[in-house]
Write a structure and sequence with these properties.
The complex is a heterodimer of chains A (about 260) and B (about 425). The two termini of chain A are about 25 Å apart. Chain A is mainly alpha-helical. Chain A contains eleven helices and no strands. Chain A is globular and about 60 Å long. Chain B has about 425 residues and is of the alpha+beta class. The chains are: A mainly alpha (about 260), B alpha+beta (about 425). Chains A and B meet through helix 2, helix 5 and helix 11 of A and helix 3 of B.
Chain lengths: ~260, ~425
């Protein structure tokens, strides 16, 4: 099954790469500043959070005593959260958005999630590149531990892809899923230590937040960028298992329902 | 390559009584089926040999598009099998997936990629695509500045840039100007000559009859007929006119043609004859000969108005000439049961050599779709021979009177 999926992806690589390129171009075709907007959007968010939390509310990270550290902490969480929300939100709408194409043209449907993933990866690469540049200039380069970024990202993409696939298929049959997940995402964001550090919470809440698979993942990013620490791999085992499980369920659901899906669009 | 085999094909859509019942069916294990199956296509079987051209006809909602969609693979069949050999190209929705902000060239590349081609393949085909589409410099302008005809030209050129083994064409083809229609039809014909299997959905009788080897009639989601195009189209026309209480009947004539007779039967045709100048019945007429088409009609029930129409068709079923008494302002009113009416249409045989048939209709108004008392295909078959006039080509005799004048002074003086 995986082999046949791979084969159809391979023969349609032209379409996939073309779509990614076209989507990227389409976003900025008629804008004057082009790709700048990809950067300005999260940048504005970071500025807002930094100003409000770091300066006005005088939030300081435990053990670190400069305002810049909080910005780095925030970026580490916010940028990777952005990748998560972009993939899942785009995935849940990918079949609906391409309804016309799906109804009229026969092509391997698995191309659609792959296009979403690649697009998100490009956007993320731009912004993480800038972030790394910023770290280099301000002398906060995390060093060798940066190598851990790739496995962490791979893990995250696996998790997002599985979840996105499930949401995407379900959303075709039950449109409530899209609405519901958008709300869930709000809560999920604040239930993940992104804006605030985990350590400022009471003990029992900290334990509760451990149930959130993203807590340790985002925490790993934060430790990596802020302190140059290698992730504690064992703490990431739960999210790995969940990610694999989500992918298996997602692919099964996709295989079972891909035919019926066209009838519902 | 190019073989299509469809066996036991059926398509049903699921209909759930409420929005929640689908969720229940998905989530509760071993729960009974909560949906009703709504069949739109059932028990379709056919086999199309490589290089054959088959037309699919049927009223709206008969399942034509569903069938094509399943063959192209966008929709999955509920039951049955489709086996295709070779590369399939479909001209279903031309211009689908064109992005308005990109240039024609970029969109052509994308459309090609959507068909599974690689960039290099498309680059190699590009000059040919440009040449065929004939949209000039516009190929490098954004597609949003295109007219729909231009989009259609480009889309057709991309879709048919490579000769497929199987080509599936929907009525979409009737878009575009007459010039491009001809051009695209020529391309389809040339594909066919080169061995492409063709599947066409159309309501255009002449398109089906001039291209197809056979035709399939779909009716209410089932295959009603699979036969020679003329026979299917005649039956289809009769079906279109079918109303409550009408019968459709087909008989095979001595010549092998299938005669279709349908109608409600308030009036019927008793006899059809072609007469020469001396009132003798003939079955072959000379080009240019004055003849009379005589039709006897029997009135079986009182009817308020009666129009008789006839149409002469050639061997391929293409209309040569047709007229009815409504258009001639000679419709009859208030006819009583038991009456007999004799119509005589006198004309000069202006057709070329060949075999022709006469279809007749008895109806209330101009069209036989309103009230169809009787519709009869192959009411009469006759030949046209040419012993009198010079040997000309074509199906219409225009009897050109020729006068030629030569200038008296040669332009260049001949050397003495």
């Amino acid at each position: 099954m995986l082999l046949s999926l791979y084969r159809s992806l391979r023969s349609y690589r032209g379409f996939i790469l073309g779509s990614v390129k076209r989507e990227f171009q389409a976003r900025y075709r008629n804008s004057l500043f082009g790709a700048l907007w990809t950067v300005l959007n999260p940048l504005s968010m970071i500025v807002v959070y930094t100003v409000i939390f770091s300066h006005i509310m005088r939030a300081r990270l435990p053990g670190v005593d400069d305002g810049m550290a909080y910005s780095v902490y925030l970026c580490a969480g916010l940028l990777t959260w952005g990748l998560f929300s972009e993939i899942t939100l785009r995935c849940q709408n990918m079949f609906l958005e391409n309804a016309n194409l799906l109804k009229k043209i026969s092509f391997p449907r698995i191309c659609l999630p792959v296009i979403v993933l690649l697009n998100a990866a490009i956007n993320f690469a731009i912004i993480i590149g800038l972030f790394l540049g910023f770290l280099l200039i301000t002398g906060r380069w995390p060093g060798m531990a940066l190598l851990a970024l790739l496995p962490l990202l791979a893990l995250q993409v696996l998790f997002c892809a599985g979840l996105g696939m499930i949401l995407g298929v379900l959303n075709v049959f039950f449109r409530d899923v899209g609405q519901l997940f958008a709300i869930c995402l709000q809560f999920w964001f604040w239930l993940t230590p992104i804006v605030y550090p985990l350590s400022i919470l009471p003990e029992w809440v900290q334990r509760l937040l451990q149930l959130n698979p993203l807590t340790n993942l985002i925490g790993s990013y934060q430790n990596l960028f802020l302190y140059g620490q290698w992730p504690v791999w064992s703490s990431l085992l739960p999210i790995l298992l969940i990610a694999v499980l989500l992918c298996v369920i997602g692919l099964r659901l996709f295989r079972q329902r891909v035919g019926e899906m066209v009838d519902e669009l | 390559m190019g073989h299509i085999r469809v066996t036991g094909l059926g398509k049903a859509y699921k209909q759930y009584p409420t929005r929640w019942s689908r969720l229940a069916e998905w989530l509760i294990p071993f729960s009974p089926m909560r949906h009703r199956q709504h069949w739109v296509l059932q028990d379709v079987n056919f086999d199309i040999a490589p290089g054959e051209a088959v037309g699919i006809v049927g009223v709206n909602g008969a399942g034509k598009s569903t069938l094509l969609k399943m063959i192209t693979g966008t929709t999955q069949p509920t039951c049955g099998q489709i086996r295709l050999e070779g590369r399939v190209a479909a001209l279903l929705e031309l211009g689908m997936g064109f992005h308005p902000d990109f240039t024609g060239r970029q969109n052509a590349v994308m459309a090609g990629q959507l068909l599974g081609m690689q960039v290099e393949d498309i680059a190699a085909l590009m000059p040919d695509i440009e040449r065929f589409a004939e949209i000039g410099e516009a190929i490098d302008h954004p597609v949003r500045t295109y007219s729909s005809g231009m989009q259609m030209r480009l889309a057709f050129s991309v879709a048919t840039a490579r000769r497929p083994d199987i080509l599936i064409v929907d009525e979409a083809l009737s878009v575009g100007d007459a010039y491009f229609q001809h051009k695209s039809f020529d391309r389809i014909r040339s594909f066919r000559k080169a061995g492409t299997t063709l599947l066409i959905v159309s309501h255009d009788r002449s398109a089906i009859q001039s291209i197809c080897d056979s035709a399939i009639l779909l009716e209410g989601g089932r295959m009603a007929m699979h036969d020679k195009p003329e026979a299917v189209m005649d039956y289809y026309n009769a079906l279109l006119a079918e109303r409550e209480g009408q019968t459709v009947r087909q008989e095979t004539l001595a010549g092998g043609q299938v005669q279709t007779v349908s109608g409600t039967g308030e009036a019927g045709i008793l006899s059809v004859r072609l007469l020469d100048e001396r009132e003798r019945a003939i079955d072959a007429a000379e080009v240019g000969q004055p003849v009379v088409l005589e039709v006897q009609v029997e009135i079986r029930q009182d009817i308020e108005r009666l129009v008789l129409g006839f149409m002469i068709k050639d061997r391929l079923g293409q209309a040569m000439y047709g007229i009815n008494t409504h258009r001639q302002n000679q419709a009859l009113d208030d006819l009583r049961a038991g009456e007999r009416v004799t119509y005589r249409f006198a004309f000069v045989m202006g057709l070329g050599k060949g075999n022709y048939s006469v279809a007749l209709s008895l109806s209330r108004l101009d069209s036989h779709l309103d009230r169809n008392f009787e519709w009869r295909d192959y009411g009469l078959v006759f030949h046209v021979i040419n012993n009198r006039e010079e040997d000309f080509v074509g199906c219409a005799w225009l009897g050109a009177r020729t006068s030629i004048s030569r200038s008296s002074e040669p332009l260049v003086e001949r050397a003495p």
